[in-house]
Amino acid sequence: MDSHPNESKASSRIDDRLTSDVVVRLRTQYRDHWVYCHSHILVRQSKYFAERLSDTWPECQILDSRNCVEVDCEENDFDHTLHILRLLYLSSDSSFNADIFHGVRTALGILQAAFKLGCLEVVTACAEYLEAVPWEEDEEEDILKVIPNMGPEVGPVLARLQPVIPSVMIKLFLSAMRFATSSPPASLNDVKRTAQEELDDMLTEDKNAPLLTADNNEIKLEVVQCIKRLHDRLSELVESLQCDSEDSKMLLLSFKSCLSDLSWAFHILSKMGILRDFVHRWTQISFKILKVVQKLSKEKETVLIRVIVLDVAAMVLDAIAYGKVVLPATQRLHMTKVWLPFVREMRSSIDTTSYNDEFGMIDDEMWMLLESLFVSLILTLPSADQAEILTGWWTNPTYPDLSVAFETWCQRSKVARRKREMLAGGDDSA
Q1: Which terminus of the chain is more exposed, N or C, with fewer CB under 10 A?
Q2: Which pLDDT belongs to residue 205?
Q3: Which residues form the BTB domain (predicted)?
């Protein structure tokens, strides 16, 4: 059918029976809706209608003395298809304002229908809208289901979801890491916390693969330097807190913040397999940390500091006790003698106060973990050192229960003596 290029869209109105020459039948399972249209508009704006209204289309239906074109659609696409027919009557491209789409899901529905009808201008307008507006997570999933097979016109919509080249991702990670291990003003604490959470997530393998792998030496070297600066800041705070100062309250806040950062940093280093430097530095400063902590009052805020110290210490002890980081026996003994009394005192203190209920920071699982760690750590020590620690424990055999370590020490000692006697007997007979 011939179109009328000299007719303007402005002179024609949708559903104007007097001037229409085409009936568009929108058909769903439950509806057969007639829309009175104009062929010169449909042909100009839609490949689908241009094809069916052409002289080469084999079957051209006549309905109500007009040409008829059927459009089959799903029930949930009906409104979007009807909307497209109205959009074709807008006077110019500039009329495709954002307010005609009424949100991401509506625009996505219109886009699907427009793609089916070959309405390039509408497809482009929908794509430009979707590319420019924010998406909710469920909307993003819908976009990923619909967009990829629609061709280059909608390609820009997916630009924000394209994989970032590794060098750019590394640069972003390290920039965030430097901030996450810094000491910004209190007003930026929430921003810093967000940075730490997302950095952790970038290295985490959950239902998705981690964004970064831990085998990149550039990342490892920079992360180690960032954590080194954290430890240096902790050392400075410990030295300052050992002296009486008018700024002790501010120092304690900084001390608490630094400890929290170290607790987070341990998880990052653990995922990257580079715990050694952290464990060595914590081992070296453990005694001084406890000297500061033991001077603190029993106020709630300082109890929270003790809890964070205990959390970091538990992670370090776990790394040592189970061989994730290898330390010589002298340092393992040092860590046992430093932290065992603190843990015992901490358990006794919390059991006799309401702080544990208020903070909910230390549960039975944590105490069981610490008990298991000390048993394992003690059993890695030379026999004489084990005996020394167990002798002290038997003077007050409360938490942690080291009876398993005592039992193992006794059995080992018997076996060792028997083997020595056998070896000695063998030498005599020789």
Answers
A1: C
A2: 81
A3: 20-89
- Please answer whether residues 283 and 327 qualify as being in contact, where contact means their C-beta atoms are separated by less than 8 angstroms: yes
Q: How far apart are CA 305 and CA 317, in angstroms?
A: 18
Tally of CB atoms within 10 A around 292: 19
Q: What is residue 390's predicted lDDT score, i.e. its pLDDT?
A: 97
335 shares a domain with 221: no
Q: Are residues 204 and 252 in the same domain?
A: yes
CA distance 260 to 262: 5
The per-residue pLDDT for 277 is 96
* DSSP notation for 227-268: HHHHHHHHHHHHHHHTS--TTHHHHHHHHHHHHHHHHHHHHH
pLDDT (0 to 100) of residue 220: 93
Question: What domain range includes position 349?
Answer: 292-430
Q: Which of 247, 274, 301 finishes a domain? A: 274
Number of domains in the chain: 3
- For residue 425, tell me if it sits in a domain: yes
Asked whether residue 357 falls in the same domain as residue 393, the answer is: yes
Residue 155 is predicted with a pLDDT of: 86
Which of 322, 317, 323 lies closest to 339, judged by CA? 317
Burial class (CB in 10 A: 0-12, 13-18, 19+), 380: middle
Domain boundary among 143, 161, 179: 161
- Is the backbone peptide bond immediately before 400 cis, with ω within 30 degrees of 0? yes
Residues 6 or more apart from 68 whose CB is under 8 A from it? 22, 23, 24, 25, 60, 61, 62
Q: Judge if 263 and 397 occupy the same domain.
A: no
Residues 167, 98 share a domain = no
Residue reference for tokens 């003395």: 65
Q: Are residues 224 and 157 in the same domain?
A: no
Give the largest Cα separation in the chain, rounded: 126
| pLDDT value of residue 95 | 54
pLDDT of residue 4: 46
pLDDT of residue 3: 44
Same domain (yes/no): 140, 214: no
The answer to the question of residue 281 being in a domain is no
Residue 308 dihedral angles phi and psi, to the nearest 5°: -65, -40
Chain mean position to CA 280? 29
pLDDT less than 50: residues of the chain: 1-7, 9, 91-94, 358-359, 430
Provide the residue type at 342 as one letter.
F
The CB density around residue 103, as the number of other CB atoms within 10 Å, is: 13
